[in-house]
Amino acid sequence: MKKVVIGIVLIVFIFGSALAFLSNSDGLNIAKSDKQIESEIVKSMEETKNENENIEKLFTRSLKELKDKGFEEIGLSYSHEERILFAQVNDTDTLEDNKGEIKEILVRIAKEVGINGFNIKFGIVDKDNTRNQEDKKLIESMHKVSNVVSDVLKDNNYSNLSYSISINPNDEIIVIRTDVDFGGNGELEKLISNSILSKTNMNYKVEIKKRSDSELREQEWQPIFAAIRDETSKKFNEYRGFAHSFHPQPLQIIIKTKINDSWFTNSEIKVKEIENYVDKIIELKIEALSIKEIPYEIIIREKNNKKIN
């Protein structure tokens, strides 16, 4: 009887030791896996940074060469998620007559600057001339106003001030949002307004407002949102979109996927993988940007937008 009891105790001890070993081993594997994920993301973000720099080179060199060849009204944009270079021309005739030459220039310069594995899509610029003229006029006004505001702030020892400008043509108001509270500083607002009037002939009221906490958070997190979009779309074929919302709290990071969450598909592992990957991107970017961490929730949605994590 004693031998049987001793044997059972020994078996339990061995079994318990084995479980403890497996548990420790799993912990090591998880830690190693996290380290590998971190290393992979760091490498991928560096590649994204280099690609962005190459895209800027592509735009600069392509637009210059196209202009030199007489194609002045061509717009270029690039989608990282789809890896598509979009080229918009003025009209159908220009596209039909010169598509081959324009494509040759874009492909050649892309190869020279180190961009590969992308497609080119051509389109025609929106023919709503009234809308185009209004947009062009607003952009020109923004440019003129920005130069005047920059000069006035510099002359008043605010050259290092971070700010953004918005123009409301209907109400004739220019709003300057800054990180500094200029409450009650009507003199500066009047000075900017008078300078804009004298240099651009635009008689606009100027309001200087301090950015709200939510606006500051939105601004701080933009590089993080961009990294989530870029890196998640590169890593997962299931990715189909990104969204975020600061309201309601906590911050919601929403990853839209093509996952079919039905009872016969084993989607839980992939969902967890995506969630962990996004979480690690956020962790790395918060550290790199030295910004204050705030509570957030990562939400994974399946192809019909149902939450699946």
Number of domains: 3
Specify the overall morphology: globular
Work out the radius of gyration. Answer: 28 Å
Helix content: 55-70%
Biggest sheet features: 3 strands, mixed
- Give the CATH class of the largest domain: Alpha Beta
Sheet with most strands: strand arrangement: 1-2-3
CATH topology assignment of the largest domain = Alpha-Beta Plaits
The class by helix and strand makeup works out as: alpha/beta
Instruction: Please report which band the strand proportion falls in: under 5%, 5-15%, 15-25%, 25-35%, 35-45% or over 45%.
Output: 15-25%
Q: Determine the number of helices (DSSP H or I, runs of at least 4 residues).
A: 6
Known CATH architecture of the largest domain: 2-Layer Sandwich
Task: Identify the notable features of this structure and list them briefly.
309 residues, alpha/beta, Alpha-Beta Plaits, 3 domains, three-stranded mixed sheet, disordered N terminus
What do you see in this structure?
This protein is globular. The protein is an alpha/beta fold. 57% of the residues lie in helices and 18% in strands. Helix 1 (2-68) crosses helix 2 (92-113), helix 3 crosses helix 4 (186-200) and helix 5 (213-235) packs across helix 6 (268-289). The chain has helices spanning 2-68, 92-113, 129-155, 186-200, 213-235, 268-289, and strands at 75-79, 84-89, 119-124, 163-168, 173-178, 205-210, 239-245, 251-257, 296-301. It has a 3-stranded mixed beta sheet. It has a 3-stranded mixed beta sheet with strand order 4-5-6. Strands 7-8-9 form a 3-stranded mixed beta sheet, with helices on one face. It folds into 3 domains: 50-124, GMP Synthetase, Chain A, domain 3, CATH 3.30.300; 130-211, Alpha-Beta Plaits (2-Layer Sandwich), CATH 3.30.70; 215-301, Alpha-Beta Plaits (2-Layer Sandwich). Strand 2 (84-89), helix 2 and strand 3 (119-124) form a beta-alpha-beta unit. This is DUF4030 domain-containing protein. It comes from Bacillus solimangrovi.
